[in-house]
Amino acid sequence: MKKILLAAMLLLSLPITAKEPVKKTSGNPILPEFHADPEVMYSNQTGKFYIYSTTDGAPGWGGYYFTVFSSPDLVNWKHEGIMLDLQTQVSWASGNAWAPCIEEVKQKDGSYKYYFYFSGHDVKRDRKSIGVAVADSPTGPFVDFGQPIVYDLPEGVRGGQQIDVDVFTDPVSGKHYLYWGNGYMAGAELSDDMTSIVPGTTKVLTPQGGSLKDYAFREGAYVFYRNGKYYFHWSVDDTGSPNYHVAYGTSDSPLGPITVAEKPIVLIQDAGKEIYGPAHNSVLQIPGRDEWYIVYHRINKGYLFPKPNGPGFHRQVCIDRMYFNEDGTIKQVIPTREGVAPLKGKVKKQK
Fold first, then answer.
1. pTM of the model
2. Any catalytic annotation for residue 20?
3. From the DSSP assignment, how many helices (H) and strands (E) are in the chain?
């Protein structure tokens, strides 16, 4: 009896630990602290999803490193650490680690390589340039190529910055393309080694016209393919403006020309929900499914431009579903606080 009483007392003295509640939705934002310009990727090698972004919150957009988060289901995200530090791992750049993108490329031997494109402040040229780092894993270690691969304005363009890079592999031809630009949109074919642009292929693709109310191009190009069409997303207005939003057009070619959609707005603020400046996005298709998500940043409501604490470097990463009409046009996305539900079923790996 004494042994039973002693055991009962020991059990009562143990601390009670509550189980962590199961998340029914991701919630928005999905990453902690401040991040912006998110790039989302599914890895065939690991079977996980990854987000790379601008590390935000530093005055003057002064972040100097990139982090990576992983998730098995788009709801539960794990911080995988710093995957590239411009000050210690990139010889040509001093900081302003902005707006990255990444591509997983299967090699002839069945292995994978990851090509991570980013913009940074080019010390030699004293301006923003675009570089690339390479790894054998989505989380690194990444090794910088050693020099920027885009640093001059395209021919005929008189202003803007070499930032906001996007990479796209055409499922029709198998060719790889790079897109970039602030104030203009440029695109070019990448070489087979993914570390240089094929000479003579650069084209200026800037959608013409529009206004800050609809589709006037500013930055943040993103390209994807669906049912025979190439879709081009871009951001409108200033990144610190509550009106910062996503517009789109389509093309029959990965290098344009782009036809602006009749209803071009993909995503825009919902002031009633205190959701401001949702833009600079990437798009995720679940492999093997016609199931689409848009990953974007919004401005933390406490840091709106121009008051009280702007001008727009306190941004947060969010995710919502994206749907298409029967004619292939994109239904306008309504930004939510709930985010998305956990992904159902196994993801079919791409060949």
1. 0.93
2. no
3. 2, 19
